[in-house]
Amino acid sequence: QEDDPDGETGRALVGVLRPVSADEWAAAVRAVDPDPDPALLSPTLGDASLPDLTDHRSATTMADTDEVVPPSTSVGTTPVPDPAPTTTAPVDPGAATEAETEAARPLGALYGLAEDDDPGVTPGAFADEVTVGFVGDTTADVVIGDDDLLDGDRWTLELDGRWAQGGPVSILDRLTSANVSAEHPAAPTPTCAGEILDPVEDDLYAYAAVDIDSCLDWFAVVVRVDDEGRIAEVRLRLWEP
Questions:
Q1: Which pLDDT score is estimated for 199?
Q2: What is the SS3 string spanning the chain?
Q3: pTM exceeds 0.90, yes or no
């Protein structure tokens, strides 16, 4: 103090030793100057006031801002935004799977031939020649060229006692007479009771009557496709009492 009559050194040192409470402030001042100017014992130096340290936020934050910090944000860090809500595209419970769509593909082409009002041939659906007959019996086979696919008579066969039945039967008419199940890959000879009598083959599609009153109304149509996926063979099976 003798070399510093104005107390500038003491003020500078007090500024360095600035305490965290009013009592510690006064103690620090008296450690530098046992008989200090009473103004130095005030917790205010010029225009800079001591922060209220009862709040646990940092002195720097308290002095620089009065902003209310939201509970989810830490002082001195970048706020983390809430994650954006996720959305899921609705699923149509009635939508057909890829396998179901493929199983029904030849069926749609055959239905096109049997349309009453506007029958037509689906482009690329049929081989140049299509063999039509009965399952397990080739003696009544008929070969239909692509120019005759819309000729209904070419799709009509004589039962001649097969499955204990007689008379003509149209494969297209029988196919459209009832709802059918669609299977692919399929066995060539499904039965009314549902047994599989032959190995399942990748190039076969089977369509069997469902929702019928009795096995007398049951039928199955088995379709074989060629290497290009075109219908090359169509065979009918009935139920024998």
A1: 83
A2: CCCCCCCHHHHHHHHHCCCCCHHHHHHHHHHHCCCCCHHHHCCEECCEECCCCCCCCCHHHHHHCCCCCCCCCCCCCCCCCCCCCCCCCCCCCCCCCHHHHHHCHHHHHHHHHCCCCCCCCCCCCEEEEEEEEECCEEEEEEEEEHHHCCCHHHHEEECCCHHHCCCEEEHHHHHCCCCEEEECCECCCECCCCCECCCCECCEEEEEECCCCCHHHCEEEEEEECCCCCEEEEEEEECCC
A3: no
The DSSP 8-state label assigned to residue 236 in this structure reads E
Q: Provide the residue type at 68 as one letter.
A: V
**Tens of pLDDT along 183-238?**
999 987 777 866 666 788 999 999 999 999 988 899 999 999 999 999 999 999 99
Name the one residue in this structure whose structure tokens are 């002095």: 63
